[in-house]
Amino acid sequence: MRTVYVNGDFRPENEATISIFDRGFLFADAVYEVTTVLEGKLVDFYGHMARLRKSLSELQISLSLSEANLLDIHRKLVSKNNITEGLVYLQVSRGPADRDFVISEDAETPGVVLFTQEKKLVDNALAQRGQKILTVEDQRWRRCDIKTVQLLYSSLVKTEAHRKGADDVWMVLDGEVTEGSSNNAYILTEDNTIVTRALSNDILHGITRQAVLQCARELQLKVEERSFTVDEVKAAKEAFSTSATGLVNPVVEIDSDVIGKGTPGEVALRLREVYLKASLAAAV
Ligand code: PDD
């Protein structure tokens, strides 16, 4: 049984509780982060905590825990649960309040929950064979830059994609790809340029995205941050996604059309390798 963290205490997972009146439960009034664990260390911890602060500030939730406190909790959970590879999930909800659409002015106590998941991220079968993607309309709310727990649309469409034999979805807004269900989306054009949508409220500002684009620039690869269409994906040499848990994850098919040779692309695999090495070296 896992040890989890809830509001100041480490507890066995079956003894950790949150109020049924928590606004996270009733209104999805909560934000979260997922930090990768490789070789027992946290990848890009400070990047994730910086984004957590941004999400909290957008929702005006105040959290008294410092970065040092949060690091300590992350590390304790990794150690208590013997995680060498996997993730730490962190969620901060606004906390309990009488159910009302108006958020009470009274200071509520945020609900802080952390738990670990053991997962094989590096030697991953999906990354080896490449993902099959289906496109769907992006019907999420338009503040996708805030990492809230409102994940129902993404979860429903990804489930539907699985039922149809695909691995994930890429969402399309006004004819252009925004991102995957829980990852950022990229293509490599015929002239070897990596293209990914520019940062805006339409996508989550991926921590892995930032690190992978840095790796790409260090490898002297051309990078363009702009929107692209599904037709451009179909004509691309390669495609891939990035996320904390998927790392750099090749895409080989979109809406049943084969991308490039239909196998994980060279550039995607190289970026995966370089990103892994760099993130391990900097992990805390
Ligand atoms: N998801 N876009 C969306 C919608 C996401 O949910 C995520 C992360 C990303 C990639 O962000 P990062 O590189 O910081 O992980 C992009 C996490 C992994 C999840 O929900 O499990």
From TrEMBL:
Reaction(s) this enzyme catalyzes, per UniProt: L-valine + 2-oxoglutarate = 3-methyl-2-oxobutanoate + L-glutamate; L-isoleucine + 2-oxoglutarate = (S)-3-methyl-2-oxopentanoate + L-glutamate; L-leucine + 2-oxoglutarate = 4-methyl-2-oxopentanoate + L-glutamate
Alphabetized Pfam families for the sequence: Aminotran_4
Pathway: Amino-acid biosynthesis; L-leucine biosynthesis; L-leucine from 3-methyl-2-oxobutanoate: step 4/4; Amino-acid biosynthesis; L-valine biosynthesis; L-valine from pyruvate: step 4/4; Amino-acid biosynthesis; L-isoleucine biosynthesis; L-isoleucine from 2-oxobutanoate: step 4/4
UniProt xrefs under InterPro entries: Aminotrans_IV (IPR001544), Aminotrans_IV_CS (IPR018300), Aminotransferase-like (IPR036038), BCAT-like_C (IPR043132), BCAT-like_N (IPR043131), Class-IV_PLP-Dep_Aminotrnsfr (IPR050571)
Cofactors (names): pyridoxal 5'-phosphate
UniProt EC number: 2.6.1.42
GO-annotated molecular function: D-alanine-2-oxoglutarate aminotransferase activity
Protein keywords: Amino-acid biosynthesis, Aminotransferase, Branched-chain amino acid biosynthesis, Pyridoxal phosphate, Transferase
PANTHER family linked: AMINO-ACID AMINOTRANSFERASE, AMINODEOXYCHORISMATE LYASE
Family per similarity comment: Belongs to the class-IV pyridoxal-phosphate-dependent aminotransferase family.
Function description: Acts on leucine, isoleucine and valine.
Name by which UniProt lists this protein: Probable branched-chain-amino-acid aminotransferase
Source organism (scientific name): Roseibium algae
